[in-house]
Design brief:
Cathepsin D, subunit A, domain 1; mainly beta; four-stranded antiparallel beta sheet; four-stranded mixed beta sheet; single chain
C-alpha cells in the first residue's frame, strides 16, 4: 500500500473527522462499530503509514456518513484498521468510483461524473488539510438503533 502522511488539524485529533487524502490508497478507519456489510479478508493485509509503521487490516466493509443536509451516503470498500489514528477518505478510490474531487480555497467538492457532475458532498479547508462535512454522531445513533455496537444487551432491552 502507498505511504500516507500523518495528519492533524492544529495539533488536535478528532475521531469523527474524515480527512480527504490524495496519498491514501484506500478509505480506512479504526472504528469497527461504524461498519455495515463487513467481510473478513481472505489474506492478511497491512497499511503502512508515513512513520514507516505497519497496521493490520481486519476487515473491509461499508460505512454510512450522515451529511449536513440530512442525507446518508456510504463509503464503500473501507478498510478497518484498528491501530490507525485518523479516518481517511481516498481520493484515488473516489475517482475509481466515477467521482471527481476538486480542491480550492473554499474547500473540497465531490461530484458524481456519471450524474452530470452533481455535487455529492463538500468538505472544509482547515489549513492545508481538507475534511468531509459529515455528522458521525447521527451515524452512531443510527447504528445503535439497529443494534450495531451494543455492548450490554441488558441496557439495550431497558
Amino acid at each position: 500500500m502507498q505511504d500516507m502522511a500523518n495528519l492533524m488539524i492544529g495539533g488536535v485529533s478528532d475521531n469523527n473527522v474524515w480527512y480527504v487524502d490524495s496519498r491514501a490508497s484506500n478509505h480506512m478507519t479504526k472504528h469497527g462499530e461504524w461498519f455495515i456489510n463487513t467481510k473478513d479478508l481472505k489474506t492478511l493485509g497491512f497499511v503502512e503509514t508515513g512513520d514507516d509503521t505497519t497496521h493490520p487490516i481486519t476487515q473491509i466493509g461499508k460505512v454510512p456518513l450522515s451529511m449536513q443536509d440530512g442525507q446518508t451516503k456510504y463509503l464503500k470498500k473501507v478498510l478497518h484498521v484498528p491501530t490507525i489514528t485518523k479516518n481517511l477518505v481516498s481520493v484515488g478510490q473516489m475517482v475509481e468510483q466515477g467521482l471527481q474531487v476538486t480542491f480550492n480555497p473554499n474547500g473540497c467538492f465531490v461530484e458524481d461524473m456519471k450524474n452530470q457532475g452533481k455535487l455529492i458532498t463538500k468538505g472544509e479547508k482547515n489549513g492545508r488539510m481538507f475534511t468531509l462535512d459529515v455528522n458521525m454522531s447521527k451515524v452512531n445513533s443510527m447504528l445503535f438503533t439497529h443494534g450495531k455496537g451494543v455492548k450490554d444487551i441488558g441496557i439495550w432491552h431497558k
